[in-house]
Amino acid sequence: MSTTVVLEIGTSQIRLLAGEIRDDGALDIAGTFKLKSKGIRKGEIQDRDSAIETLREAIKAMEGILHKSIHAVYLVTSAGGVQSTVYTGCLNLVDADENLPQEIYEEDIEEVIELARKVPLPENRVKLHTLQQYFQVDDTYGVTHPQNMTGSELRLDMLTIHGKRSTVHNFQKLVDDVPIICTDAVFSGLCSALAVLPDEQKEVSTLVIDLGAGSTDFVIYSNGIVQTAGSIPVGGEHITNDISIGLTISTQQAEAVKKRDGSALTNRLERERTISIPAQQAFSARMIRALTLNTIISARMEETFSFVKEHIDHDCPNISLSGGVLLTGGGAHLTGIRDLGEKIFNVPCSLGKPFDIHGLPAKESLQFATLIGCIRYADSLKLPEEAPSRLKKILQFIWGGTHE
Amino acid sequence: MSNQTHPENRTSAPSILTLGVGGCGLRAIEQLQKTASNMKLEAIDTDTKALSESLLKDAVHIGKEVTNGFSAGGDPEVGRQAIEKDSTFVRNLLRPTDLLILVAGLGGGTGSGALPVITRIAREANTLVLCLVSMPFKFEGKLVQQKAEKALKRLRMHTDAIVRLPNHQLVTATEKNQPAEELLIRGQKLMGDAAQTLTTILSQNGIYGLDFASLRTMLQNCDGFCHFASAKAEGKDRSNLVSYNLLHHPLLSDGNLIEGAPGLIAGLIGGPDLTLEEIESIMRPIHQKLPEKTWADVGIIIDPTMKNKLSAILLVAEQWKEPLLDDSGKKLPFSKMRRLSANQGELPLEIVGKGRFSKSEPTIFHNQDLDVPTYVRKKVKLPR
Fold first, then answer.
1. Among A312, A350, B105, B335, which is 20 to 30 Å from A367 by CA?
2. Residue B77 sits at the chain A interface (C-beta within 8 Å)
3. What is the interface pTM, i.e. ipTM, of the complex?
4. Strand partners, B315
């Protein structure tokens, strides 16, 4: 099987990862590359020229690492307010002549899957994934394999994860214009979950939150299937911006102080502790109170977590998160964020770590968690990679991709 | 329906709930129930044995699944789990409450573990929280002391004010040879008294104002810790006795804490025969000790049953700082108004500090522009 290349164009970084799933299920990583991204803000393209320039630079560097050209990538996206909705497909099995319940055959299952997939979405939304949930045979809920059962009606719940059409298309077009083929766009929250959740933990209810720079994505796995997914358009960039407004310091100073001294919890006993902020260009050096800084961060993070909680309370009110909460993404490294998570969700909260990885140090694998999950996703589809078309080959020749 | 259309026309007194938590809290509430009939009382504990022996009929058992009806066994973690499992009950309890007075003993399991959780829920419900906690005796050992201190730290996160009653300070050296029973439960009695007096002062219309808002100012500004003293006397010389007892109260370290206190609330409850001279003779020596800048408020209540009797309380702040939450623009959190406040959210018209996001399309989510810092939208005052 050939190596899969996955690409993430994030608000803070462009990341690339190439790897393949071995027969024993472990992931062999062939190479990784990351570059500070430009022209992306809040998960949307702001300056297309610099975005495509950095993307080309990153692809070129990755090709150098892999010693071969890249012609197709999976694109990880969290852009455009990803949401999930459950649609139900319904198939009548009763024979018109006999009026008797019928046995369910493979074709019936395929047909109901097709029906559940073909749901109408609003014009401005684009379908990212359709994830099969439970079948229902007459009054029996929660059926996983209905084949050879007998019933008069077969229903299937399908969780559809969808994003904003224009945003997803813009990113796909950005990749197309590099030019490389964008095989599929994958929701980053789902990828993070696939990266950090072993099969056993997918069975118990676990919430995975990806705290990115531009958005906060989340997925709940329970009984081995995705129960709900969503995205809050708030990320680390917002915290930095809050700090820079609240303390009247530059964005770079805010970013640095957030990483070094920021905490998601306020400690009222630490009323007197101060932090010094070194001077930077036009901004002079300052002393600020730790309490001020942490009040700003805590307010933002508490709100973000509350949005997630509201969403899951609304979508799956019957799920108690017995598997706890796993945090991934840059925000997961913020001091006190796990304690805040425990406070809001009332269950243990820990750092999600990718597992079964070869060829990448554990510390780095944290940063590439989403991409690792995406490779697992690509493997689960087992789509044969498209061979590059003639036109692409010519274009590639012009752009100077190295050939095998 | 007419109520809903004219919420401002209706009067509603602030509702005050006194909640005892754990064994100590339970007994304090028991003591209270004997004397106070007009208060809203509730008690929760993990120990079914204590509950069944209790005189309280409606005390609630928490953590059935966690402890199987035994006590928390001195483990705060067990106490915490017990209340987390039954948090819905607490939430329902707090919904119509404006001021929650929590009564508990720290150092054990249920009190130390459950109290921080309850205060957190109360904070979420926008309820004002006053904690009356007794600190363990010295003979209970260092570990219990440490547990109590730790619980105190966690309590501070969400409590408006904590009043600590160090048990060993309540017993003077001369009393140590007296029977232990009365001395050991003195702390519980004191907590009960405090809760009762506060409820009486706030719920009855005083002839001289001390209202819910004054108490709120006091609790929100006292930066966490308050001190409390109460005194009762009857007979001819009652005012002098009360005055002396307040000024030499062991919980105010023999009255030293009044000197230089930045904030103080005094409440007097007397019968119809209360004279101005009596009021002055109590307040004069207190005011003499206070610095000029002190924020002080006095409330006087006339209770027909208190003829020939006088009781007084003092709440003394240790520090005076601006509250961290700026809600000066809000109305008083009267419970009924809170329930009616499900209005449609509004976006602010002026563009307030969006920093580098000011040029991009606003991120509207749940009727709010998330690009505006949360602390601005939620009106959290930044400590400078």
1. A312
2. no
3. 0.76
4. B228, B265
